[in-house]
C-alpha cells in the first residue's frame, strides 16, 4: 500500500542557527500518525540537519540537484554530493525552479534519471498556472508535465518516485485548491499513470498535494482517497503548525 507523506519545503529560509532552532522545536513535537515526515532545509544546512535528526523519525531531504555527477557547473550540487551528507530524497520540478530557473520538462527528465541512477527517491512536482485552470486546460498541462518528464521510466522506477501536485495559483497565496479540486486532479493523475503503467503501479505511487496547506484545511484535503499527503511550504516553518498537519491524517 502506498505511504502517506508530509514533507516540509523550507525554500530559501532559515540560516544555520535558525535551522537548529526549528529542528529543536520539531523534535519536541509528537507524531500521532503513520505518515512519513520529511523536511527540506536549504543546501548549506543539510549536513547539520541530517546529524541533528538522524536518530529521529524525520528525514532530511534536498530541494534540488543537478543532473551531472560532477564538473564545470558553478553553484550546483550533484546526487552523490547529497548522498555524502546523508540525503537520499530530492524534490525536483518545483514550480519556483521551473519559473525562476527555467527548468523544463526535458531538463527535469535528466535530473530524475540522475537521482534514480544514484538510488535516490524523487518527489516530482508539477501543476498548472491560474490561466490554465481558468481556461479549463489544467488536465492537459499536468498530463504533459508528467508524460514529458516521467514516461520514459520503467514501472520499477516508480518504487522511488513520489508525485506532488502543486497548482501554481495556490502556492504561497493562501488560496488552496478545494478538497474536491485536489481529489479530482489526483484521480486524473493516477489514471494518467494507470493508462501508461497499469493500476498496480498507479495505486502504489503516493501523490501529495501542495499549495497553502495549513492546520485548518489539512484534514479535509488529506481525507480524499487519492491525496496521500502534502508538500508544505509556509506552514512548515513553524513546528506546531507543521506537526498539526502531519497529525491531520
Ligand atoms: O513546496 C511547497 C509548496 O510550494 C507550497 O507552499 P505553500 O504551502 O507556502 O503554499
Notes on the protein architecture:
The chain is of the alpha/beta class and 249 residues long. The protein has one domain (5-209, 222-246): Aldolase class I (TIM Barrel, Alpha-Beta Barrel), CATH 3.20.20. It contains 11 helices and 8 strands. Strands 3-2-1-8 form a 4-stranded parallel β-sheet. A 4-stranded parallel β-sheet has the order 4-5-6-7, covered by helices on one side. Strand 2 (36-40), helix 2 (46-53) and strand 3 (58-60) form a beta-alpha-beta unit. Helix 7 (138-150) packs across helix 8. The longest helix has 19 residues, at 179-197. The protein is globular. The two termini are 15 Å apart. The mean pLDDT is 97. It binds glyceraldehyde-3-phosphate. Pathway: Carbohydrate degradation; glycolysis; D-glyceraldehyde 3-phosphate from glycerone phosphate: step 1/1; Carbohydrate biosynthesis; gluconeogenesis. It comes from Flaviramulus basaltis.
What is the general shape? globular
DSSP helix fraction: 40-55%
Helix/sheet category: alpha/beta
- The CATH architecture name reads Alpha-Beta Barrel
Radius of gyration: 17 Å
SSE order in H/E notation?
Answer: EHEHEHEHHEHHEHHEHEH
Q: Give the full name of the CATH homologous superfamily.
A: Aldolase class I
What are the defining features of this structure?
249 residues, alpha/beta, TIM Barrel, 4-stranded parallel sheet, 8 strands, binds glyceraldehyde-3-phosphate
Amino acid at each position: 500500500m502506498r505511504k502517506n507523506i508530509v514533507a516540509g519545503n523550507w525554500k530559501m529560509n532559515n540560516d544555520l542557527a535558525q535551522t537548529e532552532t526549528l529542528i529543536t522545536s520539531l523534535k519536541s513535537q509528537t507524531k500521532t500518525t503513520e505518515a512519513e515526515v520529511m523536511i527540506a532545509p536549504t543546501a548549506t544546512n543539510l549536513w547539520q540537519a541530517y546529524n541533528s535528526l538522524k536518530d529521529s523519525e524525520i528525514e532530511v531531504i534536498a530541494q534540488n540537484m543537478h543532473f551531472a555527477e560532477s564538473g564545470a557547473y558553478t553553484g550546483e550540487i550533484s546526487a552523490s554530493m547529497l548522498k555524502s551528507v546523508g540525503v537520499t530524497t530530492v524534490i525536483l520540478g518545483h514550480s519556483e525552479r521551473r519559473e525562476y530557473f527555467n527548468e523544463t520538462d526535458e531538463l527535469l527528465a535528466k535530473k530524475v534519471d540522475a537521482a534514480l541512477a544514484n538510488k535516490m527517491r524523487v518527489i516530482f512536482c508539477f501543476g498548472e498556472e491560474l490561466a490554465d485552470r481558468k481556461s479549463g486546460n489544467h488536465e492537459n498541462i499536468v498530463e504533459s508535465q508528467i508524460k514529458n518528464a516521467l514516461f520514459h521510466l520503467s514501472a520499477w522506477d516508480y518504487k522511488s518516485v513520489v508525485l506532488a501536485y502543486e497548482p501554481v495559483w495556490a502556492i504561497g497565496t493562501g488560496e488552496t485548491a478545494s478538497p474536491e479540486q485536489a481529489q479530482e486532479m489526483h484521480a486524473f493523475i493516477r489514471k494518467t499513470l494507470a493508462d501508461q503503467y497499469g493500476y498496480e503501479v498507479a495505486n502504489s505511487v503516493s501523490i501529495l498535494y501542495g499549495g497553502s496547506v495549513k492546520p485548518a484545511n489539512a484534514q479535509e484535503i488529506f481525507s480524499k482517497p487519492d491525496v496521500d499527503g502534502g508538500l508544505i511550504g509556509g506552514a512548515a516553518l513553524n513546528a506546531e503548525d507543521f506537526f498539526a498537519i502531519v497529525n491531520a491524517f
